[in-house]
Amino acid sequence: MKNIPIKTTLFVSFLFCVSHTTLQAQDQNTSIRQDAKFTQLLNEKRKINPTIAANERYKIQVFSGDSEKAKKALYECKQQFSELDGTIVFNTPNYKVWIGNFRTRIETERNMLEIKKKYPNAFLIKPQK
Questions:
Q1: Signal peptide location in the record (predicted)?
Q2: What is the largest CA-CA distance in the chain?
Q3: Is the distance from CB of 62 to CB of 73 less than 8 angstroms?
Q4: Does the pTM exceed 0.70?
Q5: For the CA atoms of 3, 6, 12, 14, what is the dihedral angle to 10 degrees?
């Protein structure tokens, strides 16, 4: 193993210290300029396809069957539970009626107590992405 002279070690250490003190990090300030039309388009997209933002939430399935009966069940749900969102989802070979868009399981179960009075076979689901 080779011995490094003290002068060389001190010189390298000095260069390291000088270069280290002169380096500066990037600023932490970030500004994002976003066109208002982008937000408007994103909101329209979410209205058209609500499953984009809603897949992380709980829902209640109240019906599974053919298309016409599913449309009728959705209409009845919207009449009786107007404060809840409702949608029809097609999973071969059945159409399913999902209502609600709940953030927590507890909130879903509280609403399900009322929904089960009208739809005794209703159950809680959390759709997969």
A1: 1-25
A2: 90
A3: yes
A4: no
A5: 160
Checking if the pLDDT of 4 tops 80, the result is no
Give the integer Cα–Cα distance in Å for 35 and 37.
5
CA distance 8 to 86: 76
Domains and CATH numbers, the chain: 55-125 (3.30.70.1070)
- Distance CA(43)–CA(52), nearest Å, equals 11
Return the structure tokens found at 64. Answer: 């599974």
The secondary element (H helix, E strand) that includes residue 64 is: strand 58-65
Average pLDDT over residues 24-28: 64
Residue 52 corresponds to which tokens in the numbers above? 């984009």
